[in-house]
C-alpha cells in the first residue's frame, strides 16, 4: 500500500491531464497541484477485518453506517475528505483526513477516529 493520498493524487493528475491536454512540463504540473493540510491517525480495533472498502480504499462498505458518518463529518469542513481503511497486517484502522486548514484536518481526523472506534469495535483509550 502507498500512503492514503497517493492514489487520489495520481487520479487528480490523470483528470487534469485529460481536461487540459498535453504539453505541460513536470514543473508546470507540479505548480497546478497543491497539497491540502492533512492528518493520518490509526485506531486499534478488536478485528481489523470488520472494515471493508471499495473505490480504491476511499469508501467503506462495512461496517454499516460508517461511510455515512464519514460523509456527514466531511460536510462540516471546507475542502475536506476523509478515508478509513484496514491495516492489512494489524488490527488497526488507518484514518486519513484533509481540509482547508491544519486545524480542520486534525479535527476531522479525530472525529473520524471516534466514529471508527464506536462503529468498528475500537479498543483501548
From TrEMBL:
<dbReference type="Pfam" id="PF00408">
    <property type="entry name" value="PGM_PMM_IV"/>
</dbReference>
<protein>
    <submittedName>
        <fullName>Putative phosphoglucomutase 3</fullName>
    </submittedName>
</protein>
<feature type="domain" description="Alpha-D-phosphohexomutase C-terminal">
    <location>
        <begin position="42"/>
        <end position="113"/>
    </location>
</feature>
<dbReference type="GO" id="GO:0006048">
    <property type="term" value="P:UDP-N-acetylglucosamine biosynthetic process"/>
</dbReference>
<dbReference type="InterPro" id="IPR036900">
    <property type="entry name" value="A-D-PHexomutase_C_sf"/>
</dbReference>
<dbReference type="InterPro" id="IPR005843">
    <property type="entry name" value="A-D-PHexomutase_C"/>
</dbReference>
<dbReference type="GO" id="GO:0004610">
    <property type="term" value="F:phosphoacetylglucosamine mutase activity"/>
</dbReference>
<dbReference type="GO" id="GO:0030097">
    <property type="term" value="P:hemopoiesis"/>
</dbReference>
Amino acid at each position: 500500500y502507498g500512503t492514503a493520498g497517493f492514489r487520489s493524487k495520481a487520479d487528480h493528475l490523470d483528470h487534469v491531464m485529460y481536461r487540459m491536454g498535453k504539453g505541460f512540463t513536470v514543473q508546470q504540473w507540479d505548480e497546478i497541484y497543491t497539497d491540502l493540510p492533512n492528518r493520518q491517525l490509526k485506531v486499534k480495533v478488536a478485528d481489523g477485518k470488520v472494515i471493508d472498502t471499495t473505490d480504491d480504499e476511499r469508501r467503506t462498505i462495512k461496517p454499516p453506517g460508517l461511510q455515512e458518518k464519514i460523509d456527514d463529518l466531511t460536510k462540516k469542513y471546507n475542502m475536506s475528505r476523509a478515508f478509513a481503511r484496514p491495516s492489512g497486517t494489524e488490527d488497526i484502522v488507518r484514518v486519513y483526513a484533509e481540509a482547508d486548514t491544519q486545524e480542520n484536518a486534525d479535527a476531522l481526523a479525530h472525529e473520524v477516529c471516534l466514529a471508527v472506534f464506536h462503529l468498528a469495535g475500537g479498543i483501548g483509550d
